[in-house]
RNA sequence: GGUUCCGUAGCUCAGCUGGAUAGAGCAACAGCCUUCUAAGCUGUGGGUCGGGGGUUCGAAUCCCUCCGGAAUCACCA
């Protein structure tokens, strides 16, 4: 519609002032609530064509449009803004189209759709998932759905960091203090068990360090000489050497962790098409670096370490292999990227990784380009902000984190308490009730995180952050559940999809109209959420729509409307809104209850 | 110190490529359930959009500068 109006304006400028203007240049927006009209043309930029004041120009264009275009029925000019009122029939038609299109707002994936690989989650296997991972997983999963809704072929991937010194720390502590504890012997979830020993290692190491320093060891070199740390390093060396005993402990403990992760992922409702392990991909990365060395693209120092000089790209030099030939973090990322491109021939590769790694991804991109991979330019770092607690950053070394599993449990428990207080679900059987609590609790958590602009840091207060009223997931679910309830009743009294149609003369009232307008925005929102890779646009949009609908629901009756055509319209409008709310929340990975 | 990001109501956040009197929610206060689910709806109070310059018909939005905060600049991942 905006496009049509733009072309009308260009036509009016031509007719009135004999000047041509590119219709793309015309600024048209929806009229703000407090003024009369549907669309507003900003007249200021047009005065250079009319050589008159904004008021006069707006008036002349308005007059022209009303006489030349039947769908524009009236206008008003306030300051430099030309407000146009559109014929109600246009809106009714628009409603009919949206209501009749099952795929409204989305594009379908076809054989020749571009492929985008989206990597998210990327956990370390030495500790359980925490709140920061939750933000990552929710954003990543939602981005995948949004990309799919925009007709992209999406590969959801996860790269598991299953090797390195941090895992050896858990292993050392478990061997030393664990007495053979296993998930089944202790009843502890595998990832939590391994995490417990990681925290224990750090604690014992701190004690040891203090003791050594008090015994006169130089604080600078205490990390080098502390026995615990030496054990961990020795463990890493044996692992890289393929020592069978070390490898088998490593495998066993990693299995425990994966079982735990799988449970958390499934509770969060996220999934992957392909999981990579750094213990595999670092080998490829090492090969790549060695080849590059032989081709002279990178260089080696006298100690045998391998470096890339990226100063031409405005970056520093970067180590790629240590003197002992072992790999560093970026080595495996090189391998992963190359393997991924071989497997999927992606058009784009997105990394959902926190903004603390901005520099790392600059380096990775520059490095891949240096090594001659033309697709390096298609790498995109989706850089999101940190989640902070009221008292500051989370510190996983000290165990000061908001644990993912625990948080999910608490959210569901709160949902249960609130639901029981309200008592609306008493008649529903236990297992279905639990399912509803689960949906509500998770919605509260997910929506709270996803409504915030991803690139911004956010604070999370475990005591009070997650609410169930106002701008929240449960609010939106509630709106949805009420519509479902209305639709169930409507079906019960014999209303069916398309059993009637609206006449050309039907005129929606003001509130109905603003809902149609709100629904109409959905397709723009989906497109920009995809272009900008920003799920929060959808979250905030769905909230606006739900709010709009709640006002309508409060002020007007749907099923008790006496005029049959309007009653039919309201039922179908409600159905349309529930569809859009449901689809919007689906894009966020949030499930909707039929009742609550 | 270099680079990047952020600063909007007491708190948590919106505000699209510059557009009309800067919006929600929470918290506070006051109303609305014999009528489709009150996890809802309505109203009141609350702001020098970090400060100062600039660009222009118009700046929370763009540019410069200063202040404050965060991240990063590892042979950790």
Looking at the overall shape, the CATH architecture of the domain at 440-587 is Orthogonal Bundle
CA-based shape: globular
- Please state the oligomeric state of the protein chains shown: single chain
Please give the largest β-sheet: 5 strands, parallel
Whole-angstrom Rg: 30 Å
Strand content: 5-15%
CATH topology value of the domain at 440-587:
Isoleucyl-tRNA Synthetase, Domain 1
- Please count the beta strands (DSSP E, at least 2 residues each): 14
CATH superfamily of the domain at 440-587: Isoleucyl-tRNA Synthetase, Domain 1
Structural category is: alpha/beta
Portion in helices: 40-55%
Low-confidence runs: none
Figure out the total of helices: 21
Largest sheet strand order: 7-6-5-11-12
Distance between the termini: 38 Å
CATH class division of the domain at 440-587: Mainly Alpha
- Give average pLDDT, whole number: 92
Please characterize this protein's 3D structure.
It is a single chain. This protein has 596 residues and is α/β, with parallel strands linked by helices. Among the domains are: 2-86, 2-Layer Sandwich (Gyrase A, domain 2), CATH 3.30.1360; 440-587, Orthogonal Bundle (Isoleucyl-tRNA Synthetase, Domain 1). The protein contains 21 helices and 14 strands. Strands 7-6-5-11-12 form a 5-stranded parallel beta sheet, sandwiched between helices. It has a 4-stranded antiparallel beta sheet with strand order 1-2-4-3. A 3-stranded antiparallel beta sheet has the order 8-9-10. A hairpin with an 8-residue loop joins strand 1 and strand 2 (39-42). Helix 6 (165-177) packs across helix 10 (227-240). The two termini are 38 Å apart. The model has no long low-confidence stretch (mean pLDDT 92). It binds one RNA strand of 77 nucleotides through helix 14, helix 15, strand 14, helix 17 and helix 20.
């Amino acid at each position: 519609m905006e496009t049509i109006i733009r072309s009308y304006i260009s036509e009016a400028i031509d007719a009135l002032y004999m000047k041509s203007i590119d219709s793309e240049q015309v600024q048209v927006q929806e009229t703000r609530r407090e003024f009369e009209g549907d669309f507003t043309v900003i007249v200021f930029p047009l005065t250079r064509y009319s050589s008159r004041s904004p008021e006069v120009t707006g008036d002349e264009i308005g007059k022209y449009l009303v006489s030349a275009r039947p769908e524009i029925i009236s206008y008003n000019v306030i300051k430099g803004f030309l407000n146009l009122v559109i014929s109600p029939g246009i809106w009714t038609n628009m409603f009919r189209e949206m209501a009749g299109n099952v795929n409204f707002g989305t594009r379908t994936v076809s054989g020749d759709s571009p492929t985008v690989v989206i990597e998210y989650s990327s956990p370390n296997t030495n500790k359980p998932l925490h709140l920061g991972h939750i933000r990552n997983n929710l954003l990543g999963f939602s981005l995948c759905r949004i990309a799919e809704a925009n007709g992209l072929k999406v590969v959801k991937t996860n790269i598991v960091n299953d090797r390195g010194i941090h895992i050896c720390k858990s292993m050392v502590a478990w061997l030393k203090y664990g007495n053979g504890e296993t998930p089944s012997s202790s009843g502890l979830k595998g990832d939590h068990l391994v995490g417990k020993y990681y925290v224990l290692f750090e604690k014992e190491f701190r004690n040891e360090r203090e003791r050594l320093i008090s015994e006169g060891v130089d604080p600078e070199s205490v990390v080098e000489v502390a026995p615990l740390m030496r054990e961990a390093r020795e463990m890493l060396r044996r692992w890289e050497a393929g020592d069978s005993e070390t490898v088998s402990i490593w495998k066993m403990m990693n299995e425990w962790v994966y079982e735990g992760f799988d449970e958390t992922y499934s509770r969060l409702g996220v999934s992957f098409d392909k999981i990579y392990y750094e213990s595999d991909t670092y080998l490829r990365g090492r090969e790549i670096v060695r080849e590059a060395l032989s081709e002279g693209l990178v260089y080696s120092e006298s100690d045998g370490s391998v470096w890339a000089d990226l100063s031409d790209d405005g970056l520093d030099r970067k180590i790629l292999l240590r003197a002992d030939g072992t790999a560093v973090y970026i080595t495996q990322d090189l391998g992963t990227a190359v393997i991924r491109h071989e497997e999927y021939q992606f058009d784009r590769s997105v990394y959902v990784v926190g903004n603390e790694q901005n520099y790392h991804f600059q380096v990775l991109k520059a490095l891949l380009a240096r090594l001659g991979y033309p697709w390096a330019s298609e790498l995109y770092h989706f850089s999101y902000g940190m989640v902070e607690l009221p008292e500051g950053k989370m510190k996983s070394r000290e165990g000061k984190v908001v644990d993912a599993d625990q948080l999910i449990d608490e959210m569901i428990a709160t949902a249960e308490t609130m639901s029981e207080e309200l008592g609306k679900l008493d008649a529903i059987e236990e297992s279905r009730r639990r399912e509803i609590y689960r949906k509500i609790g998770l919605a509260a958590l997910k929506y709270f995180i996803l409504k915030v602009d991803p690139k911004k840091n956010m604070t999370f207060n475990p005591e009070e952050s997650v609410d169930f009223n106002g701008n929240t997931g449960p609010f939106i679910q509630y709106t949805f559940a009420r519509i479902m309830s209305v639709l169930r009743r409507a079906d019960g009294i014999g209303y069916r999809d398309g059993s009637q149609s609206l006449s050309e003369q039907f005129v929606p009232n003001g509130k109905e109209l603003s809902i149609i307008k709100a629904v109409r925005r959905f397709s723009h929102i989906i497109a920009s959420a995809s272009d900008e890779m920003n799920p929060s646009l959808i979250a905030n949009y769905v909230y606006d729509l739900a709010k709009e609908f709640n006002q309508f629901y409060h002020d007007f009756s749907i099923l008790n409307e006496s005029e049959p055509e309007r009653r039919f319209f309201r039922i179908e409008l409600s159905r349309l809104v529930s569809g859009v709310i449901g689809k919007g929340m689906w894009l966020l990975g949030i499930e909707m209850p039929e009742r609550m």
